[in-house]
Hints:
The model has no long low-confidence stretch (mean pLDDT about 90). With about 450 residues, this protein is of the alpha/beta class. The chain has helices at about 20-40, 50-65, 85-90, 115-130, 150-160, 180-185, 205-210, 235-245, 260-275, 285, 300-310, 320-360, 380-395, 430-450, and strands at about 140-145, 170-175, 190-195, 195-200, 200-205, 220-225, 250-255, 280, 295-300, 370-375, 400-405, 420-425. The chain folds into 3 domains: about 1-40, no CATH class; about 115-330, Aspartate Aminotransferase, domain 2; about 335-450, Aspartate Aminotransferase, domain 1, CATH 3.90.1150. The strands form 3 sheets. A 7-stranded mixed beta sheet has the order 1-9-8-7-6-2-3, with helices on both faces.
Amino acid sequence: xxxxxxxxxDYFSQxxxxxxxxxRGQLVLNEFLKPIKILxxxxxxxxxxxxxxxxxFLLQTLSNMDxxxxxxxxxxxxxxxxxxxxxxxKTSAGFCHGVGRxxxxxAPQPKAxxxxxxxxxxxxxxxxxLKNFGLxxxxxxxxxxxxxxxxxxxxxxxxxxxxxxxxxxxxxxxVDHKSLLKAIALMGFTPKIxxxxxxxxxxxxxxxxxxxxxxxxxxxxxxxxxxxxxxEHDDIKEISKFAKDKKLLHIIINAYGxxxxxWMKLIRSAIDAGRVDVxxxxxxxxxxxxxxxxxxxxxREEVITKIxxxxxxxxxxxxxVNFLISMLSxxxxxxxxxxxxxxxxxxxxxxxxxxxxxxxxxxxxxxxxPVAVAVSLDNLKKEQLTALGxxxxxxxxxxxxxxxxxxxxxxxxxxxYPTPYIVMNAAIGAKQEDVSFAVERFEKAYKQVVL
Length: 451
């Protein structure tokens, strides 16, 4: 007979422990277990964060359902979650069997009933979370153990035209990011890149230019929200209308866009206005997990099913567990606070960079970006621009990007960008002191390279 933890005091009713003490202890235990019960019943992201102890209890309980924890089992398969060290149990949260089956990522795994529950639950939470934070019009979501670029490759492979089709081109409003271009090449497709144009300080790709580049060999179009200045987000709503009209597969790269209500609003309106097939977002950039996962969402369930069935082999559970841990440790209210802090930090970053720019006779570039700010470096020589990045690194500032118009243009998303610049980010999870110290050290590094 199994122990019912909600009635554990019944086992000690005839002992010398006073009844009031037992009831007090049961009250504490029930409070500890209550969020788990609610999670199983509602399958929604909790409003308030869980404690680490509650998360560990949940993960250990579910992972103990998997067959590799069965001490009486005779395990004679080639894949039995055998491990060399108990450290493997820690790094995988106990889910050594992974998730899915060969040929179907979301299929229940017979050797991992606990892992299957964990994965099912995580996908429910991912959908609930995105609906709460800007995409109420999505239908199904899946968390996968692949980075953003590989998630794009998987999506393209799953949704590609029929085998004999001659459609092999993908319209790509210029995105100077190697992982996305590699993903397209990996699947054997050809990107048809529409060059960015400079409008003031910002780089944009006009919808008219995109339409003009369509030909009979194109079957898909990629658009994006989040990217580094000077590139601004695409006109996703108009692209979705265009995709619907021309029957093009439309994939949105929302790499670190979940943290921005402005970018999420663009996607929501695009779904309502036209055709959006897939929205891909990184787990580490949005949800504060280790690198290695992505969340793929779609307004249509059958799209996610196709992507799930295209995954080759069984999958690691670790990136999935990492996402689940973030959802439970942050909760809806915790993530909302992070967004508010990110918005505060972004404003602070721009304010401090404007002050610094005045002291060095430079200016903040006028580019819409809810996460990053760019500052001109017109007064630096080529060798000084090169030295600036190294000086910041030595001052222990990580993340800034320095662009020199005399070197590679890759990263600007246009043929020629006239202004050298530095980009700094105030992304979700950064602290106020990170922003303040980074700007102070930028000014210090600038003065070092001009001496």
